[in-house]
TrEMBL record:
It comes from Streptomyces coeruleofuscus. Keywords: Signal. Residues 1-23 form the signal peptide. This is Secreted protein. It comes from the Bacteria.
Amino acid sequence: MRLSRRTASLSLAVALVMTLAYEAVPHARVPAAEQESAEPFGAACRTRVTGSRVTAYCHNPYPEPDRVSLHVECARWWDIDTDSSPVEAGPAQTVRLTGRCWKEVGEVWISHRRAS
């Protein structure tokens, strides 16, 4: 039996939609048992870049201490990138971190580690 072009196109479209719908279903990456036992962790940080200087404020609302570090990547290839020493943000504590480049700042991020 020969399919018409219209039937073939419709069949292909239905197969494509069903494949895409399956891909859109969320898949858990962490087992549910681990998700329930994980306690909230991590200070909330805000960064501000003013010219070549960077200031970050990190507030830890959780009972477990968080060791935060500021990382500054400079825009110029010859400018030295910096990583601050880890600073412990205790429960309900706000810490201030600073860094700078000689010229423009390219990228800024904060890393978090659980205090041991």
